[in-house]
Amino acid sequence: MFLDEFHTLAEGRFTISAEQASRFAKGVAGDYNPIHNPDARRFCVPGDLLFALVLARFGLSQRMEFRFLSMVGDGTSLMFQEDADGLVRVCDDAGKCYLEVSRGGATTRDEAIVEAFTRCYVSFSGKNFPHYLKPLMEEQGVMFNPRRPLVIYDSMGFSLERLEGLAPALELLDSSLTINGKRGDTLLEFSIQSGGERVGTGSKKLVVSGLCDYDPEAMDDIVAEFYRLKAAYEA
Question: Which domains, ranges and CATH numbers included, belong to the chain?
Answer without folding.
Answer: 4-234 (2.40.160)
